[in-house]
């Protein structure tokens, strides 16, 4: 009960001070429209109907001093040096306390506009929970990442789309992923196969950036 009250209080404070966050998505309809206009669900073979706002924030090391971490808005264009360090993740919305799975893929690997049959996986982590008393929206994982964050290095071509997706984690996920090629192979990752083989539902949130 205390955690729910704290979360409601934090949401009310955020609503009063929207300028306190350096860029962020605030409307699920806008995020959904941006994803489909960028042809990301079609390319990945997913149905994108987000239930939560998924915030991805990079450290302020490569943005103006004094600003809060750089939080993505769907479709934001970033310089490569802004994404060198692993991001933090937050969700706003009612989709439970976790666990969640978070995935980052290069939609256009290896070369845009002629990508391969699969994506390049830049991050895959499981067992993310909302359990930070000081920040009730912050996600933290209780186990090592299945694929540690790899910063984007797009081959010189047209800009690449990098999608961040969050999924509700099924009970048997940790057993189903162990020993599979999804655990070790980052190139030619196939999201639709991954969803089928691990029993995931469609993503409950997402955002993306362009480099």
Automatic annotation (TrEMBL):
Residues 1-23 form the signal peptide. Keywords: Signal. Pfam families: PBP (PF01161). InterPro entries: PEBP, PEBP-like_sf, PEBP_euk. The keyword Signal applies. SUPFAM superfamilies: PEBP-like. This is PEBP-like protein. It comes from Agrocybe pediades.
């Amino acid at each position: 009960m205390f955690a729910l009250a704290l979360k409601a209080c934090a949401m009310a404070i955020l609503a009063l001070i929207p300028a306190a966050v350096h860029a962020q998505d605030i409307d699920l309809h806008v995020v959904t429209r941006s994803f489909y206009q960028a042809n990301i669900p079609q390319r990945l073979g997913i149905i994108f109907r987000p239930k939560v706002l998924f915030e991805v924030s990079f450290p302020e090391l490569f943005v103006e001093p004094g600003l809060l971490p750089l939080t993505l808005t769907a479709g934001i264009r970033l310089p490569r040096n802004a994404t060198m360090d692993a991001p933090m993740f937050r969700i706003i919305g009612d989709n439970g306390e976790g666990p969640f799975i978070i995935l980052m893929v290069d939609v256009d690997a290896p070369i845009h506009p002629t990508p391969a049959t699969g994506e390049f996986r830049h991050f895959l982590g499981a067992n993310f929970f909302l359990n930070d008393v000081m920040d009730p929206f912050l996600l933290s994982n209780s186990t090592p990442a299945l694929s540690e964050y790899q910063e984007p290095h797009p081959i010189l071509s047209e800009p690449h789309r990098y999608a961040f997706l969050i999924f509700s984690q099924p009970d048997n996920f940790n057993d189903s992923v162990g020993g599979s090629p999804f655990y070790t192979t980052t190139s030619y990752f196939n999201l639709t196969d991954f969803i089928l083989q691990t029993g995931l539902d469609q993503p409950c949130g997402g955002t993306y950036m362009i480099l």
